[in-house]
Design a protein that fits this description.
Blueprint (H helix, E strand, L loop, with lengths): L1 H51 L44 E4 L7 E10 L6 E2 L5 E9 L8 E10 L2 E8 L3
Antiparallel strand pairs: 1-2, 2-3, 2-4, 4-5, 5-6
């Protein structure tokens, strides 16, 4: 009978120790996940700021003025132009994928998608307009359960460029 009590006590103690360790691991995972999300958002914001410093379109680089949407780049031609090695306008970033590591978390990936936006519907369109949406998608399969998407709209009005940043939950 004493052995049964001792075995029961050891089993109960083991159960509580395992539960405590499991809770501790769950808390550490939650903290790491949150840190990864904060890092991802920070990097996305930096990337948006970098893209926002560029000209709206190839037709507006070097202080050129696009007086008609017909002068703008077609959405099928987004991405780096054949002769370019660095981005000089917003749509050059389309299709770029970045590998990112922070001092504490490695393995982030960021993808950039650029699209025209229909000003009447606020929806993505293939038609040339004076509004481009920059979508940054960041993920880390080791530390984040889902990707983070951040959107930025770049607009063009002759020689005046403006931006609006917003996030959409997914």
């Amino acid at each position: 009978m004493e052995n049964a009590k001792l075995i029961f006590a050891l089993a109960t103690l083991s159960y509580f120790a395992l539960t405590s360790n499991q809770n501790s691991l769950t808390q550490k995972e939650a903290v790491t996940n949150m840190e990864a999300q904060i890092s991802a958002i920070g990097y996305a914001q930096q990337l948006i700021e970098q893209i926002s410093t560029k000209s709206f379109d190839e037709a507006t680089t070097n202080q050129q003025v696009a007086s008609s949407t017909s002068q703008l780049t077609t959405s099928l031609s987004f991405g780096l132009d054949g002769s370019e090695s660095t981005a000089d306008d917003v749509d050059d970033y389309d299709g770029m994928i970045y590998d990112i590591s922070t001092p504490r978390i490695e393995g982030f990936k960021a993808a950039v998608n650029v699209s025209y936006i229909n000003p009447s519907t606020s929806q993505v369109t293939s038609t040339k307009t004076y509004i481009k949406q920059v979508e940054i998608v960041i993920w880390n399969s080791s530390f984040m359960s889902d990707s983070i998407r951040i959107y930025n709209w770049e607009t063009y009005h002759n020689d005046v460029e403006a931006e609006e940043i917003f996030c959409k939950p997914y």
